[in-house]
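Exercise 3.2. Students should predict the tertiary structure of the chain below and write it as structure tokens, then compare their answer with the key that follows.

Predict this chain's 3D structure.
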Amino acid sequence: MTTWKERHDEAVRKQAAAQQAYQDATDERALALLAGVEDLGTQAAVARELGVTTPSVNQAIRAYQKKIENTE
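Answer key:
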């Protein structure tokens, strides 16, 4: 039988893993968008291809670039 504290600690570990997985997926998406810009030429073209707005593409790319700049 597990204690409430053990259950709590396990839930905290799961939350941390989920947050890391989300961040990894966010980075992968931004890298894919950057590759799309290389292939198609503009963020607007990428947005059209994906059926999303240009600002959403721009925001994802900028957030990734800012993260990378802050880790250098």
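Discussion points: The mean pLDDT is 97. The two ends are 46 Å apart (CA to CA).
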